[in-house]
Design goal:
This protein is mainly β and about 70 residues long. The protein contains no helices and five strands.
Length: about 70
């Protein structure tokens, strides 16, 4: 049993969705990661966790992950 408040759960997070453009995929989700560096307030681009992925952070809140389709 958890002692966390029920309003803290992920059930209130918007559902991520994926868009496919031919051989490319774009996943759009909220960014919940703690960043230990100063983030550009408008757009931040970084390599993804896996090879071939690009992560774009928009307005320090929305994360777009670009990748090849499987």
């Amino acid at each position: 049993m958890t002692t966390l408040n029920s309003t803290f759960g992920m059930e209130y997070a918007p559902t991520p969705f994926m868009i496919r453009f031919g051989r490319r995929e774009m996943l759009v989700t909220r960014d919940f990661r703690k960043r230990f560096y100063a983030v550009n307030p408008f757009i931040e681009c970084d390599t993804g966790v896996e090879p071939g992925h690009v992560e774009i952070l928009l307005f320090s809140r929305w994360l777009l992950i670009l990748s090849k389709a499987h």
